[in-house]
Structures are given as structure tokens and as C-alpha cells.
Amino acid sequence: MRVRGRTAALVAACAVVGAPAAAAAPPQGFQSNASFSASYAQRGVTAVAATSQRVSCYAPEVFYLASLTPSQGYPDGGTTLCNGAATTGEDIGPYPLQDLKNPPARAKDFSESDLHVDPTNPRHLIGVSKWIVNAEGYNHLTGFFESFDGGATWPQQGHIPGYEAWTDNSDPVGAFDPWGNFYAVVFPYMFSYIASGQHFFLSPDVNPTLPRSGLGVAVRPKNAAAASTWNTTHGGQLDLIERTPFNGSNVFDKQWLAIDTNRHSRHFGRVYVSWAIGNDDSGLRIYLSYADARRNGTHTNWSRPRLVLPQAQRVGDNGSLPRVAPNGTVWLATSSFRSGDEPFTMSLTSSRNGGRAWARRSVIVRHSVNGYRNTSFRAAFGEAFIVGPRKVGRFYPLYAAYEQSSAGGTKLFLRGSFDGGRHWGTSRQINDASGEGDALQPNLAVAPNGTVAVAFYDRRLSCPARDTTDATIAGLLDRDDVIIDGGNTFWQDDIRRARTLRDKGIYYVDVGTSGGSARGSVGTWLSNVDGGYARPPSGSPRYRGPSTITTVTLSLPPA
């Protein structure tokens, strides 16, 4: 909830990591900025705008209309009423637990996505994300998007129902159980807006009959056919794991979950949910609750949340990451901190009895996370953790990725343990920029053959400056849109913009260039755009979109 900012293109770096070895350069070596910029097309990467394939609407509990301008980074700012535009089939409200009847608004922005593959069908994917109706006001629920063809199309999507009566649902996270049911853990909480636009966190004035915050569960059953098909109740009540206040604490934060899908495990099908509980950052502690999933999409009662790790006074724990090894051992990494200016400590514990008792804490690494340059992103914990599916020697390998900030920027490193976390190998740098450029927010996955993949945001390429043509292009357009550049634009700028937009599936047409239209039209096309349809010239890839397309026409001044 409190740490925001996970929206950008992901970059993956892969390496087969074996037993600990001496320090070495990244396996892929260092890469020039030009090579990195061209790698998207060279590797045949396909971008799909998943959350814009349908129009989603819902009625928020708290309606907020304030907006900012495109020059401030909000090209479609403010709240947009639905006005019958919804195409998802979801219930657009109002909802039974709400105490007001606000009009439905369009979900226009999406961030902090978490994507998972169905263990029973690798072509079935579900992602969860913040489902935002007003980005300026941080007004959102949790939503989902679902694919049945390996990610090419996302026909099922919408907000996750059940928790619309809170102002926000935050920190989206999900996972499949062994039978293909999908669990989403949502964090519903209340706030109101004060005159300055800031939040009155846990305001007693918003829907006062409900708890100020809680941790809730929604289960999408296997083969669900509609956007609204979610199980959100348990025992006849809303499926809340816990609510505040809890043990005198009023703050929940940063939930995560892991599900044991290993058929030989003693706790096959167990759902583990961990999160931070406290009253302020320095008092946060990691707790965990669990339940056993059933084939029909239901589950047993949630266990009472149990403290995972004790911690010293004025030191907080947050950002827990539970993972389950093939033998059923639950590993949990977390981040400890005193203040934002001091190094973070990434540490580890484990449970061999299904989450009932936990081993003593051991340290993985201490690292500095001091924020990023040229961005409004706020630094989070900068950590990722995963357990390998195949033993290396006697143990399942453990991998930790983390950010390390310095005067030269933020870099990413990877460490591995091959003796159950007792020792950790030499750190290896993952990002391959030879110069400046932040690498941040890592995530980890391990393939069945042991290949380790690190996904992260790579910001070595400069962002467009505010109030420039390139900033306008970056913020206003979607895939299959068409730009008609009617200004006297320098032909080299045309080429650069056309290549950039081509990777995003956006068509660029220049009709007024400085330096020659033949040069300026490289990578662009134009044919019958005014008629509402378009056909690429001979030798260009055929357009495979609908027969009529939405055309965005901009008159762009010279750069």
C-alpha cells in the first residue's frame, strides 16, 4: 500500500546458476545502449496491451474527481464516468456493502501487476493489478486479466468483486492452487480525502460499519466463465483472513502468498499468506496465516495469524516473500530496516511443519536502496527470492536478487545458496548496462531445468523531457493507434520516433518533414487514413487488426 511504482517494461536476464563460484562478470557481458534499444525487435518480443482489450467500470466507495494535466504526467487525468462503455460483463455497482450510491467510473490505469501460469494448463494465465479509476487520487480496487491462449488475448477481465465497499484494495497478488483455481489476496482499507487532496488514512467517516482495513481472499474457480465469477465468502461471511485492529495494531501492509502444489508434500494444497502488522514502519512484524485449498475452489478455515520472526525495537520487517520447496518446506525472505536512509537487511527463515513453527533468522545480504534518478518512482525493498525446483547436491537451491544503490545509480545483484541457506555465494551483477542507468524492482523465476530468470526494470535509456513531443507520444497512445505528424519535423526525428512507436504497435505517418519526405517516411506508412482504414505499402507487414481502427491525429510542432 505505502510503497508504489511498478509500471514499466520488464527486461529479463537469464543464466544457468550452478554451485557457488568466484565473482564474475554478468554471463551475458555488458551491452551498449544501442544494442539494448534494438534487442526488443531482434529477439522477436511481442507486446500485448492486456488490460485495454476490454472496458472495465465499477462504482467506487469514495468518488474523487480531481485531475492533473498531461504536462504533469496525466494525459487522461481525473475520473471518467462509465456512461455505458463497459464491455467486461462485470457488475458495475453499486454494491451491497457500500453505504453510498456513486456512479460507475472507468478503470483507466493499471499498476503493480502479478502474473501466474495455471499448473494444469500452461496456456491459461491470470494476472492481477491495481484497477485505478483516478490515478491522481490513488483510487482503485484490485482487478484481474485472464488469457486462455498463452497471453495473446485477454478476454476475461474486470475488478475483483466482494471488497468494493472499502476506498481502496491494494498490493495485488495471486497464485494458482494445484487444481487450477486462482487465489487473489486483497488488502481493503479506508481513507477519505482532505481539502489538500491528501489521504486521511483509516478515516472513521467512510462506511463506518465495516472494519477500517483487513486482508481478504477471492477465489476464481477453474473454468469460470464470467468476469464476476469469484468466491468471496467463507462460512457465510466475507472471506477475511483478519481485520484491524489486531493485537492492538492498526496497520496491515504488503501481503504475499504461496501455495504448495507439490503432490508429494505433506501439506499439498496449503495456502500460505504472509504480511506485515504494526502501527508504524519501525514496528512492523511479519505474520502468517494458512488454510488448505480444496479441489472445488473452497478452503478450510484460516489459521490465526502467527508471528513469524521476532525483531529488535525500532527495527521494522516488511516485504515478506514466502516460497514452497518441492519437499514442502516453506521458505520466507523479508526485509528489515530502521529508516529509509539506512541499508536494508534481507533475511531468511523456514518452516518444516506447514507454517506452525519457524527457524531462527539468518541474513542473506545487507544492501542500500536510496531511490532512483529521473523518475517519480519511490524505492521499495528492491528484493526478490525464489526456491529452485531441482536439488543441487542435497539441497534445493535458494536465490536472492537485490538492488544496490551508489553514486553511479542502482544495480542488481544475484546470490545463491546451495546448503539450505547456511552460506551464500558471491554476488553477481545482473544488469548489463556499461554506463549509468538504474536497474530496479527485480523478480525471479526458475525453469524446470534450473535456468534462473531475473526480470526487472532497466532504465538506462533516457526518458523524454516534460512538455516535449516525445513525452506527448509516450503518454497518449495505445497499440494500433495512428499518429499523423503534420508539422515540419526534422527527418531524423521522424525515423527515431517511427522505430520507437513500431515496437509499441503504434503507426506513425509523416506528411511534413524537414530534409526530405523519402527519408522521413522510413518505418512509416500512409494510405486512406482519412477514410478510417489503412493498408501498409508493398513489402510491409500486413495489418491484422480490425477493418476499422481508431485514428489519433496530432499536429506535432518541430522537436
Report on the structure:
This protein is mainly β and about 550 residues long. Among the domains are: about 55-245, no CATH class; about 465-559, no CATH class. The chain has 4 helices and 33 strands. It has a 4-stranded antiparallel sheet, with no helix packed on it. Strands 8-9-12-15 form a 4-stranded antiparallel sheet, with no helix packed on it. It has a 4-stranded antiparallel sheet with strand order 16-17-18-19, with no helix packed on it. Strand 25 and strand 26 (about 410-415) form a beta hairpin. The chain is globular. Residues about 1-25 and about 515-559 have low confidence and may be disordered.
- State the end-to-end distance: 39 Å
Measured as a percent range, the helix fraction is under 10%
Largest sheet, if any? Answer: 4 strands, antiparallel
Number of helices: 4
How are the strands of the largest sheet arranged? 4-5-6-7
Question: How much is the average pLDDT?
Answer: 84
Tell how many strands the DSSP assignment holds: 33
Radius of gyration: 24 Å
Choose one word for the global shape: globular
What structural category characterises the helix and strand content? mainly beta
Estimated share of beta-strand residues: 35-45%
* Low-confidence regions: 1-24, 513-559
Write the layout of secondary structure elements.
Elements: E1 11-16, H1 33-42, E2 57-58, E3 105-106, E4 109-118, E5 121-134, E6 139-147, E7 156-159, E8 168-176, E9 182-189, E10 191-193, E11 199-201, E12 214-220, E13 233-234, E14 237-238, E15 240-243, E16 251-259, E17 270-278, E18 285-292, E19 306-307, E20 316-324, E21 330-337, E22 344-351, E23 362-367, E24 383-387, E25 398-406, E26 409-417, E27 428-429, E28 438-446, E29 451-459, H2 469-476, E30 482-485, E31 489-490, H3 491-503, E32 507-510, E33 513-514, H4 517-520
Parallel strand pairs: 30-32, 31-33
Antiparallel strand pairs: 1-29, 2-3, 4-5, 5-6, 6-7, 8-9, 9-12, 10-11, 12-15, 13-14, 16-17, 17-18, 18-19, 20-21, 21-22, 22-23, 24-25, 25-26, 26-27, 28-29
